[in-house]
Design goal:
This protein has 113 residues and is an alpha+beta fold. Helix content is 40%, strand content 27%. The chain has a single domain (3-111), classed as Alpha-Beta Complex (Aspartate Aminotransferase, domain 1). It has four helices and six strands; from the N terminus they run ααββββαββα. The chain starts with a helix and ends with a helix.
């Protein structure tokens, strides 16, 4: 078991499911990325650079795809609370799996240019 496994298991089952979905998307689209805990959250590095990380909080999951990942999807993220490099996906709403997939794919393409 690695640090990310332990991190995910530290949350209630319904949150674990969401975290696992995000983790699986990243692993599928960036199989060569390395996985670690950084700043107390699951972090993925690709080609020596930070790709994305995510974290669970009391009422949301924070997803951190760098400022470029937020800017490129600004319109699609308009229904969510965002900041320069982060978006919050509320726990009381469905996880936007397709949007997360698009953002991760975009970030992978950026990192592999």
């Amino acid at each position: 078991m690695n640090g990310v496994d332990e991190y995910i298991k530290s949350f209630p089952e319904e949150v674990q499911e969401r975290l696992t979905v995000i983790r699986n998307i990243i692993r599928e689209l960036a199989p060569q990325a390395t996985e670690r805990i950084c700043m107390r959250m699951p972090t993925y590095d690709l080609n020596g650079k930070w790709l994305v990380h995510f974290a669970a909080f009391k009422k949301h999951i924070g997803f951190y795809p760098q400022p470029e990942g937020i800017e490129a999807f600004k319109e699609k993220l308009s229904g969510y609370k965002t900041s320069k490099g982060a978006v919050q996906f509320p726990l009381d709403k469905p996880l936007p799996v397709d949007l997360i997939r698009e953002i991760v794919k975009f970030r992978v393409e950026q990192q592999t240019k």
